[in-house]
Recover the amino acids of this structure.
């Protein structure tokens, strides 16, 4: 019995060490099971290979027990030596496989968080118990009897399912821990009666608007903005509990969503007084299914505002404006239409160095300069300026804040390389409207222009059509197109071809690393390269 327990523990450890990539997928999908299984299906070979390799290790570890005769096997020293060697083979082999089969250059690294440590612990216990009782039910010895040996060797083949089962069993504990932290963050905000709470959501533009708004409001208020892409309930909870200080007067929370009800949950935490809707469009359609469900979810922020709340909308002439029209609390619309928009821009001019425009509100006018590129960034600034006016910043304070705005990393960020090509880094979260704006920005640059892109994902049934439209929009802005991912890029290539883009200027590569090497070969000093979108590791083609 002791020997069986040790072998079960060693086999479970080997599965967990070699299956690090599966745990990484689970983490990348925010521990959501539908996303995890989609990722496993998309990367089926990578997902099943660890289990297959561990099965081979188990077969090798149990082989001596199967071939040795009873007289030799019954010697205690032989059994002890076999057990030690088996444990070393399984744990060492699992560690080696984990190193070899995990993502070598992960864009978002696997992080051994407290939650992941708990998942490891639960997984070790659950897998060990499943193995042990499966063997006991066969009333056999691994390596000595066919049934017990078969249980051991076949167990790792279902490793993706075992990881999901362990995640499911760990969920109640995680939910309890999360709720305790969540309620503590609620208490902290509840005690801050002086704190102005702002929520931002939208299909795109959330992070840019958040940082732009934070920069402008700092001209008058000490402002806390949730960092990076912290836009989940637990991410925002962590920020409130660890970073909110007594001196902060404004708290700006980005609110992301992949399912109906996600924004409502965020509002249960933050209780915003001001709500900002940046955009509504076909993002995350693999979970939302329809744009109407996207709009309903984003509008949860406006629904959560108190009666004296303030709602701000970017005027897109489409869904955002429709949502603005139906809103009953105090509302504000911003854009480029002086007839309909409360805050608008005139005399917009773009250059490779940035943008200039006249900020307008009623009879007020102020010339503004920013390093940000593209019309969407101007629209984002206008949205933030409207909020600033509402919070009683002067036109001069707003213009001064606009001048201080710096490009957000990976969002139309211009990176100059003296002696080499300029790079426009627009790698974060591409969408069709943002991509078209990025292409227009690229057209303003002289010399050779190159686009490197894997296209767009999470668009459900519309993915092919929208990537073809993406390719069509790209056709007149660049001299060369480098498409990453042979399967996914087919739609982009079709869009390019249909719009007369020369086929010999389309290059298809398998990875971003290959694209970067090719970029160095086809560009020179003064050329410009646009990196449009960069998919996370769970979308890498096998």
């Amino acid at each position: 019995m002791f020997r069986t327990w040790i072998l079960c523990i060693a086999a479970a450890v080997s599965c967990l060490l070699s299956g690090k990539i599966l745990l990484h997928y689970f983490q990348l999908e925010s521990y959501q099971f539908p996303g995890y299984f989609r990722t496993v299906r998309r990367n089926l070979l990578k997902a099943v290979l660890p289990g297959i390799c561990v099965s081979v290790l188990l077969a090798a570890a149990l082989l001596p027990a199967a071939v040795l005769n009873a007289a030799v096997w019954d010697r205690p020293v032989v059994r002890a030596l076999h057990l030690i060697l088996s444990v070393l083979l399984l744990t060492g082999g699992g560690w080696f496989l984990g190193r070899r089969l995990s993502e070598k250059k992960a864009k978002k690294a696997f992080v051994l968080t407290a939650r992941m440590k708990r998942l490891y612990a639960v997984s070790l216990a659950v897998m060990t118990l499943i193995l042990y009782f499966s063997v006991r039910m066969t009333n056999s010895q691994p390596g000595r009897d066919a049934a017990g040996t078969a249980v051991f060797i076949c167990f790792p083949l279902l490793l993706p399912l075992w990881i999901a089962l362990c995640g499911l069993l760990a969920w109640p504990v995680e939910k309890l821990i999360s709720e305790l932290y969540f309620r503590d963050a609620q208490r902290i905000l509840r005690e801050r009666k002086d704190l102005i709470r702002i929520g931002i959501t939208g299909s795109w533009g959330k992070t840019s608007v958040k940082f732009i708004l934070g920069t402008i409001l700092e001209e008058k208020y000490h402002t806390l903005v949730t960092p990076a892409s912290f836009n989940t309930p637990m991410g925002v909870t962590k920020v409130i509990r660890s970073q909110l200080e007594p001196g902060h007067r404004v708290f700006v929370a980005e609110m992301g969503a992949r399912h109906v009800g996600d924004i409502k949950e965020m509002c249960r935490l933050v209780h915003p007084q001001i709500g900002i809707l940046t955009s509504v469009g076909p993002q995350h359609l693999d979970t939302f299914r329809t744009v109407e469900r996207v709009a309903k979810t984003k509008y949860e922020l406006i629904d959560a505002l108190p009666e004296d709340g303030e709602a701000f909308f970017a005027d897109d002439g489409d869904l955002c404006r429709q949502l603005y029209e139906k809103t009953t609390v105090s509302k504000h619309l911003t854009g480029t239409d002086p007839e309909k928009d409360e805050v608008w821009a005139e005399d917009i001019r773009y250059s490779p160095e940035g943008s200039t425009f006249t900020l307008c509100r009623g009879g007020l006018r102020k010339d503004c300069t920013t390093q940000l590129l593209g019309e969407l960034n101007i629209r984002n600034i206008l949205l933030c300026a409207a909020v600033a006016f509402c919070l009683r910043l002067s036109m001069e304070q707003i213009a001064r804040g606009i001048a201080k705005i710096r490009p957000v990393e990976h969002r139309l960020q211009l990176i100059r390389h003296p002696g080499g090509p300029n790079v426009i880094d627009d790698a974060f979260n591409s969408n069709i409207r943002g991509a078209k704006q990025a292409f227009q920005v690229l057209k303003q640059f002289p010399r050779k222009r190159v686009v490197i892109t894997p296209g767009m994902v999470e668009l459900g049934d519309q993915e092919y059509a929208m990537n073809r439209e993406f390719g069509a929009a790209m056709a007149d802005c660049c001299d060369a197109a480098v498409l990453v991912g042979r399967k996914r890029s087919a739609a982009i290539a079709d869009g390019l071809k249909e719009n007369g883009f020369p086929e010999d200027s389309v290059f298809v590569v398998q990875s971003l690393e290959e694209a970067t090497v090719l970029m160095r070969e086809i560009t020179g000093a003064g050329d410009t390269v646009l990196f449009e979108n960069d998919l996370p590791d769970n979308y890498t083609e096998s």
